[in-house]
């Protein structure tokens, strides 16, 4: 039960971190509380990979493990072409993501623990030493030289006594329940504008339980189902009581939105295929890094020659329930570099983070959180962890190994 690297969290960031660490030569354990890998992509109905492509010319700029996931989805006809919504994303089938993630981890030689809840972590001096994990058989302890927190809520960092903060400047973005509708006619054109007008009309008629009037609306590959992000909730993702309240409320909203969808042409027979099952949380705890990425770094990118990861999703901030999201767009060349220090704990040298836990201010955090960018920060954190387990780690060494693994970082 001793590893070189332990990765907590099996979403986009955790998958990339574990595969990257293992390919860099580290014996690696990936711990996931759910029944499958994929995170928000498979457990929260967030079926759009955002941040892999630039907004203006739809150029792919995030590769490595992310590129392999895309390739796997394409081989099985389970992903759309890059599509311009407000920015560019691909829409995918979540069942195929489960299979692709399993295959990637198996091929790399990652040890995967599903159905395993992180309970606590031990710290000796300034380093994490062990984690305690619960399953139906009891509580188990695992040790490692280096750890990666890809939990979304920075649970590992919190349990290990690393510096964390909740949100930014006292605020966190609201969450949204992904709702998938079936029974939509193949020739029905369900646009964001049509849904917005239908929601407004329903509100005017006094239909209760509707919050957001607009959000991302897309047809899914394979099934042709409609995915919507409209049911907004504000909650503290660290708190089971508050999250339970929000999820019950969001499911009631889903039923209200179904009534709205059924008023659209070609949608009279619509039904709910699935909700979530978990809310799509956009922000919770952040690990305090050695460097904090700022809104200015995103909007006015510097050369990325010392970056270990690339971000390409604009600043998309969701300030409150039912309040339109705030967008700000990346300057030339349409992507920005993410330094190693953003992923590396300031007070715990053997702890890295990835995904929405990384250290960005209010604006930068609203860009870094996207799943496409999570693949990039995860891949970098996993490689950094593997190199750190063998000795000293540097930006140059991490970049060299990432390039060897196909990350295609800008020079």
TrEMBL record:
One Pfam family matching this protein: FAD_oxidored
InterPro entries for this protein: FAD/NAD-bd_sf, HdrA-like
Signal peptide per UniProt: none
SUPFAM superfamilies found in the cross-reference section: FAD/NAD(P)-binding domain (SSF51905)
Gene3D superfamilies associated with the record: FAD/NAD(P)-binding domain
Keywords: 4Fe-4S, Iron, Iron-sulfur, Metal-binding, Oxidoreductase
Entry's Gene Ontology molecular function annotations: 4 iron, 4 sulfur cluster binding; metal ion binding; oxidoreductase activity
Stated name of the protein: FAD dependent oxidoreductase
């Amino acid at each position: 039960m001793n590893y070189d690297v332990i990765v907590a969290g099996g979403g986009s960031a955790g998958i990339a971190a574990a595969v990257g660490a293992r390919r860099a030569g580290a014996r690696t354990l990936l711990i996931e509380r759910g029944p499958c890998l994929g995170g928000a992509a498979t457990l929260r109905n967030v079926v759009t990979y955002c941040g892999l492509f630039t907004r203006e010319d739809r150029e792919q700029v995030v590769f490595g493990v992310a590129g392999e996931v895309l390739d796997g989805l394409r081989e099985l006809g389970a992903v759309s072409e890059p599509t311009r919504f407000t920015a560019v994303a691909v829409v995918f089938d979540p069942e195929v993501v489960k299979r692709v993630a399993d295959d990637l981890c198996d091929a790399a030689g990652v040890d995967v623990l599903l159905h395993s809840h992180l309970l606590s972590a031990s710290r000796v001096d300034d380093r994490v030493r062990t984690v305690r994990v619960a399953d139906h058989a009891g509580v188990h302890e695992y040790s490692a030289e280096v750890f990666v927190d890809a939990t979304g809520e920075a649970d590992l960092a919190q349990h290990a006594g690393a510096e964390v903060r909740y949100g930014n400047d006292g605020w966190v973005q609201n969450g949204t329940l992904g709702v998938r509708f079936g029974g939509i006619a193949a020739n029905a054109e369900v646009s964001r504008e049509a849904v917005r007008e239908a929601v407004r009309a329903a509100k005017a008629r006094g239909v209760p339980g509707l919050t957001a009037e607009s959000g991302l609306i897309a047809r899914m590959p394979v099934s042709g189902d409609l995915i919507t992000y409209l049911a907004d909730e504000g909650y503290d993702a660290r708190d089971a009581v508050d999250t339970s309240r929000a999820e019950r409320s969001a499911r009631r909203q889903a039923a209200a939105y179904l009534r709205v969808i059924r008023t659209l042409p070609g949608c009279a027979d619509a039904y709910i295929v699935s909700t979530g099952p978990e809310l799509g949380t956009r922000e919770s705890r952040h690990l305090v890094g050695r460097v904090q990425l700022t809104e200015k770094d995103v909007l006015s990118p510097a050369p990325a020659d010392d970056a270990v990861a690339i971000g390409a999703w604009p600043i998309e901030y969701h300030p409150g329930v039912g309040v339109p999201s705030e967008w700000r767009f990346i300057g030339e060349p349409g992507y920005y570099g993410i330094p190693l220090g953003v992923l590396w704990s300031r007070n715990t040298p053997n702890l890295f983070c990835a995904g929405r836990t990384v250290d960005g201010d209010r604006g930068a955090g609203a860009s870094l959180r996207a799943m496409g960018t999570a693949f990039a920060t995860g891949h970098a954190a996993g490689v950094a962890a593997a190199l750190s387990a063998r000795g000293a780690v540097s930006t140059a060494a991490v970049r060299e190994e990432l390039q060897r693994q196909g990350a295609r970082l800008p020079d």
